[in-house]
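Subject: for your reference before the review

Hello V.,

The reviewers asked for a structural picture of the protein, and I figured it would be easier to keep everything in one thread rather than splitting it across files. Below is the amino acid sequence we used in the manuscript, unchanged from the supplementary table.
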Amino acid sequence: MKKTIMILASVFMILAFLSNQAPAKKFPKGLKQLDFVDIGSEGDGGIHNLVGWGPIEPDPQDGFWGDIENGGINAGDCDVTSPDGKTRVVWAGNEPDSPFIVGRAASLVLTPVRGAGKKINMRVLDGQDVDGNGKLLNTFQVFVKNKHGHWILVYAFDPGPSAESRPEDGFCGGPEKLSDTAEEWRVHSIWLPVNEIRPGRPVEVMIQATGSAWELFDAYGQLAVDWVELVGPGSKNLPDPLYP
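And here is what came back from the structure prediction:
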C-alpha cells in the first residue's frame, strides 16, 4: 500500500511540473507564400520597387513570349500559369551591355507579410538557346543583398547549348527541351542563405542576364520574368505558394 501511495505521489508531481511549463511551440506544417510580385503588372512596380525592368510585354512588341497571353507554355512538369498574361524583361533592348541595373540587371524587393523567407520561386522564360554561333543566351544569375548591404550570389542558371548539359537541380521541367528555338516557362527555386539576411526583413533581389544578346534583342530585349514569390513558414491563413 505504501509503495502504491509513493508511486501515485510521484505521478502527481510529474503532472504538476508539466502543467507549469510553457506550451510547446507550434511550427507550421508547410511553406506559405509570404510575398508575391507580378512582374508584368503596372501596380506591382511601386509596391515592390521594381527597378531596371523593360516595358510590360507583349504590349509594345507583339511577340510570342512563350504564349504567355494564354498562361504560357510550361517546360515539362512545370504546372503553373501566368496571373495576367504579361511579363517584363530584365535586360531591355534600349539598355547598354553593362552588368548593372541600367543594363543587364533588374531588381525588386520582397517583404514577408510575417515570418522569414526561406526561398524564392521565380517563373522565367527559357527562350531560344543559341544564335547560330553556339553562344548561350538565357543564362542568368540571382543576387540578394545581405545584412551588411552587399550583393551576394545565390543562384546561377546555365542552360547550356544542348539538353544534355542542362542542370536538373533548382528548376522544374527536367533537363530536356523541345528544341533550341522553343520558348518554355520554368520555375526556378532558390533557397536563401538565412545566415546572411535579416530574418523577417525585406529581401532585395537582383536578377542579371549573363548570355549574349540574341539577334532580335533590340526589339524584344532578353530574359523575361513572369512572377516572383517569397516562400517560408507561415500561418494556415496565408496562401499556398504557386510552386512548392
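For the response letter, the relevant points are probably these. The chain has one domain: 30-233. The chain is about 10% helix and 25% strand.

Happy to draft the paragraph if you're swamped.

O.
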